[in-house]
Design a protein that fits this description.
The protein has 307 residues and is α+β, with helices and mostly antiparallel strands. It has helices at 34-40, 59-65, 146-160, 194-204, 210-224, 270-274, 278-282, 297-304; strands at 2-3, 22-28, 50-52, 68-72, 78-93, 96-110, 112-116, 123-127, 132-136, 139-140, 163-167, 180-181, 184-186, 230-234, 241-246, 251-256, 262-266, 289-292. Helices cover 24% and strands 33% of the residues. Strands 1, 2, 3, 8, 9, 10, 11 and 12 form an eight-stranded mixed sheet that branches. Strands 13-14-15-16-17-18 form a six-stranded antiparallel sheet. A two-stranded antiparallel sheet has the order 4-7. α4 (194-204) runs antiparallel to α5 (210-224). The longest helix has 15 residues, at 146-160.
């Protein structure tokens, strides 16, 4: 089934498919538009089988890559803490003042929010003599996945304006012959001085606000003091994330650019960790520790690390 629209609004487009079947969303002739395929998150030299989490470029791709929330106004407003990086004036004595720049936690009120893990649908590039397309991973067509399927369809329609939906019950259905996950750009093993790491963090934080940038710089500098022997930066839908590895301890620390997010500490083999979806990584059952981004992050990080 081929859809040519900018978006769909309902499940009616799926009526011809059988519930319980596995659906794949496919976009053909993607390499005809280099700008769009790069915006989606692929690189022009990516080979057949390259698999990524799409970049964040609109609301659909954001729900696919990042934790999102729904607001419930039927419940009373509740307090929450917002961390900001600001400059204030304080007394320095003898009638003088001085400017202090720091992180501060501010308590505010808002309606209740229910948080949801990202849909985390990955896409694979098919690049052979006979293929020039991208295909999503299989999504089972059940009631619990309807919003996920519609969001995935709209993710590609909003950029390419056309997609094909294929069921695994169709005779022509096939899966990619190979899949190579490339959600991380891995640096060679070795010690990395903070000046070099800082430059990389500043590069990936250009489009973020000052609080987001300064928080990641603060957190990454503290992590880097522990002398990791491994550094990786997120690509496409993982952009804004950095991993600091301590391979001799089988310990990996995941840091992100996003406020109201957290630092995740894993005791897990890197090869296995790098294949996890965004939703699996953010799932609280898989990590050793999770440190919420607040003004007191530094203190809690030292407690967790035993410093």
């Amino acid at each position: 089934m081929i859809i040519r629209k900018n978006r769909i609004r309902s499940e009616s487009y799926l009526n011809e498919f059988k519930k319980g079947s596995n659906l794949t969303i496919k976009v053909n002739n993607v390499l005809n538009s280099q700008t769009k395929i790069e915006k989606f998150g692929f690189k022009l030299d990516d080979v057949d089988g390259t698999t990524i989490l799409p970049s964040v470029f609109n609301s659909y791709s954001r729900k696919n890559a990042e934790q999102f929330y729904t607001i419930d106004k039927t419940l009373p407003k509740e307090k929450y803490t917002q961390t900001i990086y600001w400059t204030r004036t304080e007394w320095a004595g003898r009638g003088e003042t001085r400017e202090v720049t720091e992180f501060t936690d501010i308590v505010r009120e808002r309606y209740h929010r229910d948080y949801h893990l990202p849909y985390s649908v990955e896409f694979t590039l098919l690049r052979t003599e006979s293929e020039n397309s991208i295909v999503s991973q299989q999504i089972k067509y059940v009631d619990d996945n309807i919003k996920k399927i519609i969001n995935t369809i709209n993710l590609v329609l909003s950029l390419f304006g056309e997609c094909e939906i294929i069921s695994d019950e169709e005779p022509s259905y096939s899966t990619p012959s190979k899949v190579v996950h490339v959600n991380w750009d891995i640096l060679p093993k070795g010690k990395y001085p903070w000046t070099k790491v800082k430059k990389s963090i500043e590069s990936i934080s250009k489009k973020y606000n000052n609080t987001q940038k300064e928080m990641m710089l603060r957190n990454c500098e503290e992590i880097n003091k522990l002398s990791p022997d491994f550094v990786a930066y997120g690509r496409a839908g993982f952009r804004g994330y950095a991993v600091f590895g301590f391979t001799y301890k089988n310990l990996y620390i995941l840091e992100s650019m996003f406020p109201n997010n957290a630092t995740y500490i894993f005791e897990k083999d890197w090869e296995e960790l790098s294949k996890l979806s965004k939703g699996e990584i953010l799932n609280q059952s898989l990590h050793k520790a999770r440190i919420i981004h607040t003004a007191k992050w530094n203190e809690k990080f030292k407690q967790v690390m035993g410093k």
